[in-house]
Write a structure and sequence with these properties.
The protein is mainly alpha-helical and 472 residues long. It is built from 18 helices and no strands. Helix 1 packs antiparallel against helix 7 and helix 14 packs antiparallel against helix 15. The model has no long low-confidence stretch (mean pLDDT 86).
Length: 472
């Protein structure tokens, strides 16, 4: 089960390493298409993880895990063979649906398989794989992509998924089914609303912020989110009851979790390109280069509970956002002349913030819900994490594209503003101008993301403090 988690989470991180290769590939994706290639997987993953857990309860967890792994393999194979961007996006969407079926049901299978006295240890091991999976995705993805083609990343995922199908079929126990009603309309509305909102964000720099596609995307998103809320309020057993967001502690913790992953995956998106273009790292070195961010998560996570009990949840959360936002602002000051040691130090600072935030906010979400809705809490955490990841990639991709275009000399601008394509079309003696524009766009993006994290973090802490004060 932990290997399944590492596979579906690792793919979220690994695809960022392939962005420079995709940009210079024969597919010739635009800057917005690159963002969609990364985000389509995460959107379907985020929006369907709660329905995926409900499907496991209804049809059997083991069977849904096997079906999810099968979809993951099919989607990866389709992505690997994609002749154009459209087919690649379909493959990524299918893979995301598979991931959403796998993730929530792995924990359910584990809890059914182990004795009650081992439940705590089992949950901790499962949860740690969501962090370790990101490390494995970066290192393993870097090793695979060293072969020289982005297609190898998806080719490698197919046999791994198929091996896991065999192992799960042989090892995982069959658990009892529950007559839990599904909410397919709610799931469709949530996916549609998420895609429409990101369409407006991603297409803004290319189509223009006043263009019909951008305005239509935002309007359509508002309509679909409203419809999703109304359906949830009227449904007797919705997958997620919107009324739960009336709980101040739950609302602030969900916003906080979304914001932390918003910052972290915005960084992941530009980190691979920065280390390859700005620092001259190879793809494997780039995968290893993000490890300083994960060291605090791996080494310090078990100590956060003790710190939170000593200084309080609000103070721990405030420190978390200060480190995440401050780390991103520090990274925004780095350029191609900055020592990697300095860059790594800012990664560690950001990682400390993530380490403080995840268990603290997860605990608030879990404690805000009654015990009979523990499954909803698990799904809600996964949804907020993945949606924050998708939003972070979309926003920084948009800001970077605009910043890169404005910093690039006018005579070097083309129709497709990706770094690889501009470098390929520019004279060799002007490559430094392209890299300088790239670094400028990256710095602007990280600066904006860092300020957003600090601002929203302050709101989360104030709301948490106000809610705690009212309870007293």
């Amino acid at each position: 089960m932990c290997a399944c988690v590492a596979l579906v989470v690792g793919m979220v991180a690994a695809i960022n390493l392939a962005v420079p290769m995709l940009a210079s590939s024969a597919l010739r994706p635009s800057a917005s298409a690159l963002v969609w290639i990364v985000d389509v997987y995460v959107i379907f993953f985020a929006c369907l993880v709660i329905p995926g857990g409900a499907a496991g309860d209804r049809f059997g967890r083991k069977g849904v895990v096997l079906a999810g792994l099968g979809l993951f393999a099919v989607g990866s194979a389709l992505s690997a063979a994609a002749p154009d961007v459209a087919v690649l996006l379909v493959g990524r969407a299918v893979t995301g649906v598979g991931a959403a079926a796998v993730l929530p049901n792995t924990l359910a299978v584990l809890l059914h398989a182990v004795p009650v006295e081992r439940t705590g240890t089992t949950i901790a091991a499962w949860a740690s794989m969501t962090g370790i999976g990101g490390v494995l995705g970066n290192v393993g993805g870097g090793a695979v992509l060293s072969g020289g083609s982005w297609r190898w990343l998806f080719v490698a995922a197919v046999p791994i998924a198929l091996v896991l199908v065999v192992l799960v079929a042989r090892v995982a126990p069959v658990s009892a089914r529950h007559d839990r009603r599904l909410d397919p309309l709610g799931a469709v509305l949530l996916v549609g609303a998420s895609v429409a909102s990101l369409l407006g964000i991603v297409q803004g720099p290319e189509a223009g912020w006043g263009s019909p596609v951008v305005i239509g995307g935002f309007v359509f998103a508002a309509v679909l989110f409203t419809a999703w809320t109304l359906v949830g309020l009227k449904h007797e057993h919705p997958l997620f009851d919107p009324r739960l967001l009336r709980l101040p502690a739950l609302r602030s913790a969900c916003l906080g979790m979304t914001t932390v992953f918003f910052g972290m995956f915005a960084l992941f998106y530009v980190n691979a390109s920065f280390l390859q273009y700005g620092k001259g790292f190879g793809v494997l070195g780039t995968g290893l280069g993000i490890i300083p961010l994960t060291l605090p998560i791996i080494l310090g996570g078990r100590h956060v509970g003790r710190l939170s009990r000593r200084i309080g949840v609000e103070a721990t959360t405030a420190l978390a956002f200060a480190f995440v936002g401050g780390g991103l602002l520090g990274l925004s000051t780095c350029d191609d002349r900055t020592s990697y040691v300095v860059y790594a130090a800012w990664l560690v600072a950001t990682g400390i913030g993530v380490t403080l935030a995840l268990p603290t906010l997860s605990g608030v979400i879990a404690e805000s819900l009654p015990p009979d809705q523990a499954g909803v809490g698990t799904g809600l955490q996964a949804t907020t994490r993945e949606f924050g990841s998708a939003l972070g990639v979309a926003v920084i991709g948009t800001i970077f594209t605009a910043g890169f275009a404005s910093a690039l000399p006018a005579d070097l601008r083309g129709d497709h503003l990706t770094v690889a394509q501009v470098l390929a079309a520019s004279p060799a003696d002007r490559a430094h101008e392209v890299i300088a524009a790239f670094v400028s766009g990256t710095s602007t993006g990280l600066r904006v993301i860092g300020l957003v994290v600090l601002g929203v973090g302050a709101l989360v802490v104030l709301q948490s403090w106000w809610s705690h004060a009212r309870r007293k």
